[in-house]
Amino acid sequence: MSELLERLKEKVSNQFGEALIEGHMDYDFPVLVVAKPKIKEILAFLKSEGFTYLTTLCGIHFPDNVGAEFAMMYQLHSLERNERVRIKTFMSEKDIEMPTITDLWAAANWMEREAFDFYGFKFKGHPNLKRILNMDEMNYHPLRKEYPLEDASRHDKEDKYFGR
Amino acid sequence: METTTPSVENKEYSTLNLGPTHPATHGIFQNILQMDGEIIMSAESTIGYIHRAFEKLGERRPYNQITTLTDRMNYCSSPINNMGWHMTVEKLINCDVPKRAQYMRVIIMELARIADHVICNTVIAVDTGALSGFLYMFQWREKIYEIYEAVCGARLTTNMGRIGGMERDFSPEVIEKIRTFIKEFPVALDEFDRLVTRNRIFVDRTVKAGPISAERALEYSFSGPNLRAAGVDYDVRVMNPYSSYQDFDFKIPIGQNGDTYDRYMVRMDEMRESIKIIKQALENLPEGNFHADVPDFYLPPKEDVYSKMEALIYHFKIVMGETDVPKGEVYHCVEGGNGELGFYLISDGGRTPYRLHMRRPCFIYYQAYTEMIRGSMLSDAILTMSSMNVIAGELDA
Predict the structure, then answer these.
(1) Distance from CA of A12 to the nearest CA of B (A)
(2) What is the distance in angstroms between the Cα of A40 and the nearest Cα belonging to chain B?
(3) Does the beta carbon of B19 lie under 8 angstroms from any beta carbon of chain A?
(4) Residue A1 pLDDT
(5) Domain contains B341
(6) Nearest residue, CB atoms, A55 vs list B57, B342, B397
(7) Spans in chain A with pLDDT lower than 50
(8) Same domain, B40 and B71
(9) pLDDT, tens digit, for every residue of B125-152?
């Protein structure tokens, strides 16, 4: 599996140079972390390299990671060679505009709407960017970490009571 | 929304609001259709009516409590979701499950697949007007639920299996029930086949209804029987075998046209293949333990909890959700009843996942529905929806 990672790293860095920030293995999965401005070109390049199936995409929020609070994750799959790859890109909370990939994969339409709904990513060029699972009147993005599920006045589950 | 929209030919389309609660849609789906007579000119889907924030809830719950959330996604085959979740966590904690537990899981998952396909295929028949097949076959779904009941005590939202294996071994009663089932079900399936598959009305209604080409299906990231009906042989069980699927000999049925009839036929054949898998798994069921030795995650036997300190501590830690897990990111997918069901899990080492994203197959392929029904009759649109096996619980998470 790691030879797949090396091969992908080489291909992407040959094509895009600095835009490939790093690559590593997460369990059985090769992961490429790339710079945001090139994300769409890299995804289009990987699609032309046989990764034609978009498995899933989602947003992630790291509020403690100052300067790179948000991340987008894309998972591609090459059905011919049975290879999977995960592409991640990090961005600051001030700049969460992403290029849409709905023109590359029709399936990205609802997935991007979901990422917008829950995290507020603005997908530039998306044909119909509105909330999908939550109601339209909602004025916040619920999967962000600043919205705790637990009642904020509740202290009985704090780590210190469990010796941690 | 306007009530009528004039077109270039100076025609007026009427707007039909199909759903959210409509007896013909088998769930909470809303589609706003622009109709020219009985032909659908365009459609717009609205989803999210039963959204329950599983991904957010998952960020608060300890790992063993998330299984119950997965039950409520595709509730027609909840054991597959349960096992998929357990396997994701097992991958994260690097736990090897004994062969016996893997085979037991395969048997349960294939039974769940049959239950799922029974519902879907009989409902297609109901939507063409053939109610009797549905009534006959539901008896067999009931028998599968009786097997679930004997395995874990629950019927619909099963919460079956545990991280590390199964909660208990198959009792002789379970084995007997499964043996009877695999002997009698194929006979009933053939009967249903004779009743419906070549029925003139059924064929007229389903052939060429709601077709999708293989190219478009891949663009839309279809998976499961819907993708295979379009002629692409992608099945997670073969591509990325999990839980010892590589040990079994089975075929992947594929269709050609991606229409309602092909989706129906693929599911019919898959049920027969599932029976083959169950037969092989039951015959070769290995001896050994039914769970791995992971005391941090697997509840100790009750008598030990009452008599041994060690077991009591583990019991407390698991029940209170105080087990630490390694840091890491995993993605694990299983072949669910309607496609590739994936769990993407980020752990920061705490008691709950940092981020849990579920790749829900019908959320992804249902967006093609408006394209598939454009230009077809209203009655075909209903049939197309039931043949896509869209489950509201999974769609809305």
Answers:
(1) 22
(2) 16
(3) no
(4) 62
(5) yes
(6) B342
(7) none
(8) no
(9) 998 988 888 998 999 999 999 999 999 9
Which CATH number fits the domain that encloses residue B364? 1.10.645.10
CATH topology of domain A2-148: Beta Polymerase; domain 2 (3.30.460)
Q: Using an 8 Å CB-CB cutoff, list chain B residues near A105.
A: 219, 221
Q: Quick one: B40 and B97 in the same domain?
A: no
Q: Does the pLDDT at position B18 exceed 90?
A: no
| Joined tokens for residue B228 | 């295979």
Asked whether the predicted pLDDT for residue B8 surpasses 60, the reply is: no
Instruction: Give the pLDDT score at B267.
Output: 93
What total of structural domains would you count in chain B? 2
* 8 Å CB contact between A150 and A157: yes
Give per-residue pLDDT as tens, A147-159.
887 666 667 767 7
B257 and B139 in one domain? yes
In a shared domain, residues B249 and B315: yes
pLDDT of residue B83: 93
Three-class SS string for chain B?
Answer: CCCEEECCCCCEEEEEEECCECHHHCCECEEEEEEECCEEEEEEEECCCCCCCHHHHHCCCCHHHCHHHHHCCCCCCHHHHHHHHHHHHHHHCCCCCCHHHHHHHHHHHHHHHHHHHHHHHHHHHHHCCCHHHHHHHHHHHHHHHHHHHHHHCCCCCCCCCECCECCCCCCHHHHHHHHHHHHHHHHHHHHHHHHHCCCHHHHHHHCCCCCCCHHHHHHCCCCCHHHHHCCCCCCHHHHCCCCCHHHCCCCCCCCCCCCHHHHHHHHHHHHHHHHHHHHHHHHCCCCCCCECCCCCCCCCCHHHHHHCHHHHHHHHHHHCCCCCCCCEEEEEEEEECCEEEEEEEEECCCCCCCEEEEECHHHHHHHHHHHHHCCCEHHHHHHHHHHCCCCHHHHHC
Walk across the sheet containing B339-347 and list its strands.
Answer: B328-336, B339-347, B355-359
Q: B318 near B334, Cβ under 8 Å? A: no
Enumerate the domain spans of chain A: 2-148
Render pLDDT for B213-248 as a digit per residue (tens, 0 to 9). 999 999 999 999 999 999 999 999 999 999 999 999
Identify whether residues B114 and B13 lie together within a single domain.
no
Averaged pLDDT, B25-44: 88
- What residues make up the domain containing B130? 61-396
Residue A112's pLDDT is 93
Chain B residues within 8 A of A132 when measuring between CB atoms: 47-48
Does any domain span residue B54?
A: no
Residues B72 and B35 placed together within one structural domain of the fold: no
